[in-house]
Amino acid sequence: MQSPSRFLAAAVHGDPVRRAVQTTVAAVGSYALMTVLGLPQASWAVISALFVTQINVGATFNSVIYRLASAVLGTATGLGCVYLIGQGPWQTALSLAVAAFIIDALSGRWPGLRFAAVVAGILIMSHQGNDPLTTALLRALAITIGALVAGLAALLILPVPAHRRAQHHLAEALRQCGSLMARLGQQDRKDDDEEQRRRDIHTAIRDNLQSVIANSRQSRHPHARNGDGPGYETLTEAVQRLWHTLDMACSIDLHPLSERARATLSGTLAPIAAEGCAHLHRIADAVEQDGIPPRPEGLQEDLGTARQRLGNLGSALPDDEKAQLIAVGLILREVGTNMYAIAEPLRGNDNAGGG
C-alpha cells in the first residue's frame, strides 16, 4: 500500500494537478503584474496565460513563441487593414475578410498562429472612438506579459521538460512490452480476464509510444532530435518492432501440439519469458534514470539455447506439430534482434568509451 506522503507527492507532481498549479500561478501572476504596472487590458494578459500553459516545459515554450508571434501578426494585420481600408460598416467587413484570409493562409502552414485571427478581428471591430495604434500596442503588450509569465511559471513551478516526459512514456512502453514477454508460452490461456488484460497492454503500449513522439517533438533537448545519442523516433520504432514481434508470439496457436509438447514448450519458454520481462524492466529503469541499460548478450545466449531446445523437440514431432515450433523459434530470434536494437543505441556512449 502506498504511503500517504508518496501518494501526496505523486498527486502533486501528476500532470493534472501540476498543470493546474502552473496555470493558476500564471493567471494570478499576470493579473498582479498588469495591476502593479497600471496597464489596461489585464483580461488579455490573463487569457494569454491561461491558454499558453501546456503539459510540459517544451510545449509551454513553443506555445509562448507562437502566442508572441500571433500577437505581432494579428496586431500588424489588424492595423494594416484599419489604416489602409478605412473605417465604416463596409470597410470593417472588408477588413475582417482580408485579415481572416491572410491569417488563415499563414496558420495553414503554422497552426500555432491561429490566435492572430482573434487579435486582428477584435482590433478591427473595437477601434472605433479610440486610437487604434495605442489600443493595439497595449493589447499586444498584455498578451506578451501573459505569455511570458506563463512560460516563467512552467519553468519554475514543478517543471517537467518535454524530453523527460518522452523518457517516462518510452520506459512505460518498455515495461508493458515486458508484460507481453512474460506471457510467452501461455497462449492456451483464453479466459476473458486474460484477453482483456492483453488488450489493455496493447492499448498502453500504443498510447505511450504516441506520447513519446508527441513529447519529443515539443522538446528542445538535443537527445530528442538525434543530436546526442539515439533520437526518440529511432527508439520508438525499435520498441514498436519488438511490440509487434511479441504480439505475433502471443498469437501463435499451440493447440495443434500434443499436451506433452506444450508442457515442454512452456517449460522452455518460462525462464526466457521471465528473464526477458526483467531485462525490459531494467532497460526501462535505465531510460527513465539516464542510466546505462544492461548488455543484451546474456539474454541472447538464453534465447539461442531455447531455440536449440525447440529444434531438438521439433525433430521428434510430426510435421503438423513441427511447424508451430519453427514459428516460435523464428520469433525468439526476432525478439533477440529487437532487444539488441533497443539496448545497443542507448549504450552507444558507453560502448564508444570502452572501445
How is this structure best described in words?
Pfam families: FUSC_2. Belongs to the YccS/YhfK family. This protein has 355 residues and is mainly alpha-helical. The chain has two domains: 10-156, no CATH class; 162-354, Methane Monooxygenase Hydroxylase, Chain G, domain 1, CATH 1.20.58. It is 79% helix and 0% strand. It is built from 14 helices and no strands. The chain has helices at residues 4-13, 15-37, 42-52, 57-85, 89-109, 115-126, 132-156, 162-181, 192-218, 232-251, 259-288, 297-315, 319-346, 348-354. The protein starts with a helix and ends with a helix.
| Termini Cα gap | 45 Å
What value does the Rg take, in angstroms?
A: 28 Å
- Helix fraction bin: over 70%
Q: What structural class is derived from the secondary structure elements?
A: mainly alpha
Number of strands: 0
From the 3D structure, determine the CATH topology of the largest domain.
Answer: Methane Monooxygenase Hydroxylase, Chain G, domain 1
- The fraction of residues assigned to DSSP E strands is under 5%
Largest sheet: none
What topology does this entry show?
Blueprint: H1 4-13, H2 15-37, H3 42-52, H4 57-85, H5 89-109, H6 115-126, H7 132-156, H8 162-181, H9 192-218, H10 232-251, H11 259-288, H12 297-315, H13 319-346, H14 348-354
Helix pairs in contact: 2-3, 2-7, 3-7, 4-5, 4-6, 4-7, 5-6, 8-9, 8-10, 8-11, 9-10, 10-13, 11-12, 11-13, 12-13
Looking at this protein, list some descriptive labels.
2 domains, mainly alpha, 0% strand, Memb_transporter_dom, 355 residues, Methane Monooxygenase Hydroxylase, Chain G, domain 1, Fusaric acid resistance protein family protein
